[in-house]
């Protein structure tokens, strides 16, 4: 139904509709950095999720607990600027308040405290009109999505589907230590983060890594088979640590940004073999206020496409901005001063709920 101005009212707009990473953004969830903290690194699941390339000896130098006040305050300012920009662009922004992540919780197998609500993309996957809560292998994230449940319930009552993967046990036997002394994710149960997944219409990419195992891939394939006709493409041996969105960034149909440190012209994933590839220029390594940030400099690739012509990009990455502008993409430079400290850029800190694209075969 249209209102008096001839536009579709919010009440009749789809509650959830997102099949890709680049069509016109209509509604988005933005993270909240309040109460963000690092759990104890004596928990192997936290070690694997946060510092998978650090040795146990190096972990002893990591400061755990609440992030520095400067990080929280300046990130809150930067997220507010992002929200204001998106709102000006006509995007509806939802930003639920983060729960208290300092509270401890216990399972029959382990005890943990929380982590953060800064990156809603990490453990919630939207496919069409379906919200999927994914089974993160990090114990500290076990109840993280409870901060979004009221919002998910609203979407449910407005016609969306809302499901959750089987809650993993996350017992010690899911994890092991490699011969190099580093943590490894095993295969005793499905475990993966939503940020291991990219959506390209009918093509879905799943990165097998320290934040997503083969059983998680199998569960996702079975679930997607009930939603639609998808082609799922596993990526093996590309990036062994965590998420996919510092390796591949979808810009628009037929154009993809790839990380030249992790992919080559011979290893371009199958869905992009007929696409134009923009190889990312070297990302600027901006100093951080902590010794051990959660993300590598390649987080600078982590941008948000508002639509196929407009991108929100880290303002420090001037070479990347120039490369995007040469491809006729309008760049809105923004700051996330502590993105590496907190482990999330503009793609990570947003979860697109409504885009105007349909289920399309882009192959």
What can you tell me about this protein's structure?
This protein is of the alpha/beta class. The protein has a single domain, classed as L-arginine/glycine Amidinotransferase, Chain A. It contains 7 helices and 21 strands. The chain has helices at residues 44-50, 56-59, 69-88, 149-157, 214-227, 318-326, 339-342; strands at residues 25-30, 37-38, 65-66, 92-94, 104-106, 111-113, 124-127, 130-133, 161-164, 175-177, 183-185, 197-200, 203-207, 231-235, 248-252, 255-258, 276-279, 304-307, 310-314, 330-334, 350-355. It has a 3-stranded mixed β-sheet, covered by helices on one side. β18 (304-307) and β19 form a beta hairpin. The radius of gyration is 19 Å and the shape is globular. Residues 1-9 have low confidence and may be disordered.
């Amino acid at each position: 139904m249209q209102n008096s101005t001839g536009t579709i009212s919010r009440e009749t707009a789809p509650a959830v509709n997102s099949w890709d990473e680049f069509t016109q953004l209509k509604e988005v969830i933005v993270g909240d950095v309040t109460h963000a903290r690092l759990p104890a690194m004596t928990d192997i699941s936290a070690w694997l999720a946060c510092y998978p390339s650090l040795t146990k000896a190096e972990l002893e130098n990591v400061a755990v607990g609440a992030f520095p006040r400067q990080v929280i305050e300046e990130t809150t300012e930067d997220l507010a600027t992002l929200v204001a920009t998106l709102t000006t662009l006509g995007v509806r922004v939802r930003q639920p308040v983060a729960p208290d992540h300092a509270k401890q919780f216990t399972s029959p197998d382990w005890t943990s405290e929380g982590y953060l609500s800064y990156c809603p993309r990490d453990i919630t996957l939207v496919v069409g009109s379906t919200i999927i809560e994914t089974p993160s292998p990090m114990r500290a994230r076990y109840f993280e999505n409870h901060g979004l449940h009221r919002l998910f319930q609203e979407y449910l009552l407005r016609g969306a589907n809302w499901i959750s993967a089987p809650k993993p046990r996350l017992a010690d036997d899911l994890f092991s230590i490699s011969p190099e002394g580093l943590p490894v994710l095993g295969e005793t149960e499905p475990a993966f983060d939503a940020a291991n997944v990219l959506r390209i219409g009918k093509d879905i990419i799943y990165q097998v890594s320290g934040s997503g195992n083969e059983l998680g891939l199998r569960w996702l394939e079975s679930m997607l088979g009930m939603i639609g006709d998808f082609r799922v493409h596993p990526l093996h041996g590309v990036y062994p640590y965590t998420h996919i969105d510092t390796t591949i960034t979808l810009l628009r149909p037929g154009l993809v940004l790839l990380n030249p440190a992790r992919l080559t012209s011979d290893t371009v994933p199958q869905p992009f073999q007929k696409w134009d590839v923009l190889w990312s220029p070297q990302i600027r390594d901006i100093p951080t206020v902590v010794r051990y940030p959660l993300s590598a400099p390649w987080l600078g690739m982590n941008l948000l496409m508002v639509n196929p012509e407009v991108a929100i990009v880290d303002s420090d990455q001037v070479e990347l901005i120039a490369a995007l502008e040469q491809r006729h993409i309008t760049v809105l430079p923004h700051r996330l001063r502590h993105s590496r400290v907190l482990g999330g850029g503009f793609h990570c800190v947003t979860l697109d709920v409504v885009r105007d694209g349909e289920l399309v075969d882009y192959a």
